[in-house]
């Protein structure tokens, strides 16, 4: 099969085929191998490849886009950072609907399912089809040095990664996707505490589920941010490396 493509490359004289990437995917995750090119009688073929890691892929992507002519785009105030591998934004505190599913819903008054409750300000980090969520003590736009709190919700791992389950979320990140990501987060149903989690999510005698039930029943205007627990991350650490703590 012959594939024909056309492209306009700035200052592109002298380009020749040197290597190729093969991408393997199961529809959820993907891996890639990098292959040098073997030219035999002017017919190129692939040499044995090697697995290429995320850092090398990111560097390659930067090289590919560095010579491209791209348009600028307006970034709204709620976006904190945007890059090739993640988009970070924040949501002010407010009252929003809370949804629960089994087994958590069996431990609360089912009449409270879908009712509004006071929520803390949040920081969301989308990367591909993965989402991390943190809370803020103060209801204001965070700065790089702002400490991030553990988000006081179920379905979260220690590093803030959300167990998305069947949540309807985008399959990529970017400034044009944050509304869909935010809506997907708000519409998700909280069902369980992740068994691998070892960090304390909340410093409150009622625990996570008990506190949410009280906030719903009392229709409190503000979330008690003094109950939030420091995650060990700063905003800058999440932006710079995605997983390293301060």
TrEMBL record:
<dbReference type="InterPro" id="IPR032787">
    <property type="entry name" value="Prok-E2_D"/>
</dbReference>
<dbReference type="InterPro" id="IPR022280">
    <property type="entry name" value="PRTRC_protein-B"/>
</dbReference>
<dbReference type="Pfam" id="PF14460">
    <property type="entry name" value="Prok-E2_D"/>
</dbReference>
<protein>
    <recommendedName>
        <fullName>PRTRC system protein B</fullName>
    </recommendedName>
</protein>
């Amino acid at each position: 099969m012959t594939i024909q493509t056309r492209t306009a490359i700035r200052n592109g004289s002298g380009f020749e085929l040197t290597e190729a990437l093969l991408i393997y995917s199961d529809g959820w995750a993907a891996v890639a191998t990098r292959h040098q090119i073997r030219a035999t009688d002017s017919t190129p073929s692939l040499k044995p490849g090697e697995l290429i890691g995320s850092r090398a892929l990111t560097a390659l992507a930067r090289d590919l886009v560095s010579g491209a002519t791209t348009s600028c785009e307006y970034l709204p105030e709620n976006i904190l950072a945007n890059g090739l591998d993640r988009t970070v934004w924040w949501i002010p505190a407010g009252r929003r609907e809370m949804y629960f599913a089994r087994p958590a819903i069996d431990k609360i008054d089912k009449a409270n399912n879908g009712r509004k409750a006071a929520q803390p300000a949040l920081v969301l980090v989308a990367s591909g089809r993965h989402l991390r969520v943190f809370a803020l003590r103060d209801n204001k736009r965070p700065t790089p040095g702002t400490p991030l709190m553990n988000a006081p919700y179920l379905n979260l791992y220690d590093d803030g990664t959300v167990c998305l389950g069947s949540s309807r979320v985008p399959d990529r990140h970017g400034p044009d996707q944050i509304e869909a990501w935010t809506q997907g987060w708000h519409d998700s149903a909280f069902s369980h505490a992740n068994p691998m989690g070892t960090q304390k999510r909340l410093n409150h005698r009622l625990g996570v589920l008990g506190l949410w039930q009280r906030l719903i029943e009392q229709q409190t205007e503000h979330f008690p941010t003094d109950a939030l627990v420091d995650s060990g991350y700063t905003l800058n650490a999440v932006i710079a490396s995605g997983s390293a703590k301060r």
